[in-house]
Amino acid sequence: KSRPALANNYADSPLKLLGSSNALNTYPSLISGFMGKASSASNNIFYCNKVKDITMNHKQVTLFNMFILNVFKILHLFEKHVLRNLRDYTEGGFRLKECLRYSPLFCERGYKPPISICKSLKRKLSTSRTNDKLDPNWVTGFVDAEGCFSVIIEISEDFKWKVRISFEINLHEKDKYILYKLQSFFGVGAVYHRPDRKKSVYRVTNVTYIKNVIIPHFTNYPLVSKKAIDFLLWSKVVEIIFNKDHLTKEGFFRILSYYVSINKGVSKKVLGFYPNILPADKPVINLPEHLNPHWVSGFVAGDGGFSIYVRSAKDYALGEKVDSRFHIAQHSKDLELMHLFIQFFSCGKVTVRSNTSTPRCDFDVQDTYFLLTKVISHFDKYPLLNLKQKDFLCFKEAILLMKDKQHLTIEGLNKIKSLNLEMNSNRLR
């Protein structure tokens, strides 16, 4: 049968690579080579633009099938032995799997790759874009809690100013899974790791992606906290840079005025050169009448907490008592937002704390009845999705034990203590 020819570098180089003892070490470059040169294909990603018709005999087809099987073996071994770093190649791995799945050699000949390998690839490489897709309101809530819209102004050695922008979310390295979910949701940006600090960050710095993807999302699904002010001012900076106006003196000074009003304000270095910068007027943000339940779960996934306390108590038969608490902590500038949580959950109270280094306010619920009927019932329906979901499940189990008075028995008390050791900072050790 007449088939389009594979590009020479597909036919020769990979086959030689498969016979090499360093095949696994070269996996990322193999993926890169496949993806970079095959992405321009219109009908099938395995073929390149510069194709020509040749006749493939049965032997050639068989050899190519063997090559495909070897690729699967490499992926399987790589997944097994280098799983920790596998997600660094998530996008390439996912695309390669799709290439193999829709290759004419598979479709026309009815060939199916090994089931175990396909399931494994789907589980580890797929970014779950269908059944497990993030709700856009959840994303906005999570960014309200954990996101950052940054403007970075630097001076080079030749005293030229550089302006950079970024949208990013920094988390503990054990919570990096949700960063990959966010990367998949937006379809832009990258996830970076800082093993020395046990941190992972999802970051978008490309101005075009920010203007066409990030800003439209938060325009359609607005931020609720005071972080919305930073976003609106940051968006104006993005517009200036996108239009190349930051290269003019007037545009640069406009950026400086917004820069002063965003996040923590101007840096000392910039202030040393421009001490008389006038800050831009901050826009007024109006709170919604009601909070979206998905937004609430996203926000709590970032800034909420579930706590169990076991304290000494002489009045109790076991000499210890158990207290529980669901809470959300914020800067006091978001005090009005904290009161909206009382309305949303129909319970709880807000406390303002002025004795801390940063003025803060807390919303918390401690009553077991309300924790069961209002708080737990909400998060059962609208899950947290990140690592804090594990805290919630331990918290829920402890509350159910308390509801049945099991915390008054030595077995129940010990169970609650063990659950507490799996929560919050204990989980991150």
Which oligomeric state applies? single chain
Number of strands: 10
Mean pLDDT: 78
Query: What would CATH call the class of the largest domain?
Result: Alpha Beta
> What distance lies between the first and last C-alpha atoms, to the nearest angstrom?
60 Å
Largest sheet: 4 strands, antiparallel
Continuous helix count = 18
SSE run: EHHHEHHHHHEEHEEHHHHHEEHEEHHH
Please state the structural category: alpha+beta
- State Rg: 27 Å
Q: What would CATH call the architecture of the largest domain?
A: Roll
CATH level-four homologous superfamily name of the largest domain: Homing endonucleases
Percentage of residues in helical conformation: 40-55%
CATH fold node name of the largest domain: Endonuclease I-creI
Query: Which parts are unreliable, with pLDDT below 50 for 5 consecutive residues or more?
Result: 1-55, 81-131
Strand content: 15-25%
Strand order of the largest sheet: 3-4-6-5
